[in-house]
Amino acid sequence: MMFELPVVSTHWRGIPDIVVDKETGLLVPIINPLALADSLSWLMLHPELAEMMGKKGRARFLHDFTLEKHLLAMEASIKSVDNEGYGENSEAGSRYLDLDPKPSIAAMTSVLQANKGQQASG
């Protein structure tokens, strides 16, 4: 998807959450080499539709799956855990007195800022 090419994959675990069948690529049943071959052949016979799927896949990647999106989601998760009272004074946090979530948040913020700087220069 990142390279603006249609994806051919299987209906397995979380893949259908990423690849939209007949929109960003084609999904086939698992352990079905004939279906896989048919899908690859179909894409070769329909290059204009394959190109359209590739473009839609690239747009989906840029909208939903960039590193920045994942880092922001991770930062939000860390902050939500901290805000829910898992610090050292909480029942859950008291088992880990030497662990403080605040340095993790600061480290994540630092990673996000460094990543934004790399993306801006690249």
Describe the structure.
The protein has 122 residues and is mostly helical. Helices cover 60% and strands 7% of the residues. It has five helices and two strands. It has helices at 15-18, 33-45, 47-64, 67-83, 101-121; strands at residues 7-10, 25-28. Strands 1-2 form a two-stranded parallel ribbon. Helix 1 links the parallel strand 1 and strand 2 (25-28). Helix 4 (67-83) runs antiparallel to helix 5 (101-121). The longest helix is centred in the last third of the chain and has 21 residues, at 101-121. It is elongated and about 50 Å long. The relative contact order is 0.11.
Task: Write a brief structural summary.
This protein has 122 residues and is mainly alpha-helical. Helix content is 60%, strand content 7%. It has 5 helices and 2 strands, in the order βαβαααα.
